[in-house]
Design brief:
By secondary structure, the protein is α+β, with helices and mostly antiparallel strands. The chain contains seven helices and 13 strands. Strands 1-6-5-2-3-4 form a six-stranded antiparallel sheet, with no helix packed on it. A five-stranded mixed sheet has the order 9-7-10-13-11. A two-stranded antiparallel sheet has the order 8-12.
């Protein structure tokens, strides 16, 4: 009689549980180490790409951990619980003709099973078989002697094979793949969305620096190529600050305090009265003239051609006394500067 439940099977199941748990822990540790390394290597110029790399690493590593949980650790634990329960159950031996019926289904918190029908001389029994063992079952209608525990077949001996000796009731590979994809899809999508949001927030918190070590510029217009412009500005400041950040006003939609503490603001004249209390008493530096279309930093800021834009120093900037706010404004004016070009 071929036994499917024995001490060796229980030990193998426990080994799989421990191995899957350790592998998940290792993968989570590697993911965390990669994330921290990417944060430490982040600077003004490569921030965009490092953030994308950090998000990608978090999402992919999360998918790996989810896969290990769904297809290694959780099944191994379910198998271990299943075997442990059967080991303690009362057992009996029955003879009859065996037929598999229907598709498989998963018992909540346990293994996936197939239903079987055992036709004895006196009765027909409805039994269960661990789906993993269906490949060990004989052709339909075979006369068998089975050992049963809690309606599960735990041992089998073929007394007379069924008429179709080629028939095997194993589940097709495509069906197993389809099940795995369906089971993995929803957790993977949810994790990707959550990881993108959380990673972005944590990344910005880790890679950020104190206000004294950075220049923050907000523009009341669309911004493009911000990392490249910020890197040029940081280099021009000759290491006096560690980071330069350029954002549109919409970036601080839910953080008005941070918006009011910026060092520089690029604002159209039509919105000046709305934000005037945020600026110092100085007149703004002209950055875009709606009359002649001449602009500074035009590769970074998308100006409304009907507006005139000026750059103002923030009244709450921590770089008023050391002059860095004013110096940054002058340097930004010189980047891609067309304001002094003469029209032919």
């Amino acid at each position: 009689m071929e036994h499917f439940l024995n001490e060796e099977a229980v030990q193998r199941s426990n080994v799989r549980v421990r191995a899957a748990g350790r592998l998940m822990t290792v993968m989570a540790g590697i993911a965390l180490a990669v994330f921290v390394a990417l944060c430490l290597l982040t600077g003004t110029g490569n921030a965009r790409y490092m953030l994308i790399a950090a998000m990608t690493a978090a999402i992919v590593s999360g998918w790996i951990v989810i896969g290990l949980w769904l297809f290694a650790l959780e099944p191994a634990r379910a198998e271990a619980r299943h075997l442990a329960g059967l080991k303690e159950a009362e057992k009996r031996v029955v003879e009859g003709r065996l037929f598999l019926t229907g598709d498989s289904f998963r018992i909540p918190g346990s293994v996936r099973v197939r239903k079987a029908r055992l036709e004895t001389e006196n009765e027909t029994l409805s039994l269960n078989i661990n789906e993993k063992l269906t490949g060990n079952m004989p052709p339909a209608g075979s006369l068998v002697r089975v050992e049963i525990a809690r309606k599960f077949i735990i041992a089998l001996e073929v007394l007379q094979s069924g008429p179709d000796r080629t028939a095997r009731p194993a589940v097709s590979r495509m069906k197993r793949i389809s099940r795995a994809v369906r089971r993995f899809f929803l957790p993977a999508v949810l994790w990707a969305a959550l990881a993108a949001m959380v990673t972005g927030f944590v990344f910005n918190q880790i890679t950020d620096t104190a206000p004294a070590n950075k220049i923050v510029i907000y523009a009341d217009c669309e911004v493009q190529n911000a990392p490249e412009t910020a890197e040029k500005l940081e280099k021009a400041l000759n290491g006096t600050v560690r980071m330069v950040k350029i954002h549109p006003f919409s970036y601080a939609l839910f953080d008005s305090v941070r918006l009011r503490q910026a060092d520089l603001y690029l604002v159209p004249d039509s919105h000046l009265a709305e934000y005037r209390e945020w600026f110092t008493a100085e007149d703004g530096i002209p950055f875009f003239d709606s009359g002649n279309g001449k602009a500074a930093a035009k590769d970074c800021f998308l100006y409304d051609p009907a507006e005139t834009y000026r750059l103002y120093t923030g009244a709450e900037s921590v770089h008023l006394d050391d002059g860095l706010a004013r110096r940054a404004a002058e340097l930004l004016l010189s980047i891609n500067d067309t304001a002094k070009e003469e029209t032919p």
